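Bit of a strange request maybe. I'm writing a small parser for C-alpha cell strings and I need a real example to test against, not something I typed by hand. Could someone generate the C-alpha cells for this chain?
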Amino acid sequence: MTGRFQFRALSREEAERAGCPNGGKIRGLPPFGEEGFALTYGRLRTLFGAPAYETRDLENQYQFNLEARGENGEVRYLYAYSGPTGPAVGGGEEDLDRLAADQLAELVQSAEPSDYDYFGYYLDGPCKVRMGVKNGQAFFEESELTEEELTAAADELYQ
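Reply from user aminoacidic:
Good idea to test on real output. This should exercise your parser:
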C-alpha cells in the first residue's frame, strides 16, 4: 500500500498511451452546489492548467487526464471531469484508485481557484449558464433559453 500520491496532468499523447480515461466515477468533488462547481473547476485549473477538453455542454463540461504516482512507485490513472452529476473523479475500481481519488479531492479542496469565465448550456433546463471565478469569488448565473436559442444550442452541441 502507498502513502501519498503526487498528481500531474497528462498530455493527450500520454493519456492515449496510458489508456485514459478508463473506468467510471469513483467519487464526487465537493463542494457541491452551483458556486461549488465553479470553485472546483477554478481549483483544478490552478493545479493542472487547461483541461484536456472543454465543451459548452454542462453535462460534459471538461476533463483533466491525470497520473497519480504513489510514494512506492505505484501509478494510477484518473480523470477529473464535470458530467451529468457535476464535478467528479473517474478511474479504476481498485482500492489504490479510490485512495488516489480521495487524496485528489483533498488536494483540490485546498487549492486556491484560478480566475476563469465559462459559458455553456444545460439543455435539460433548458438554460444557458455563465460561471467562473473572479478575484477568488465564484459566480454562477443561469437564464432560460428561448426556443430559438435552444434550437441554436442543440445544433451547436450535437452536430
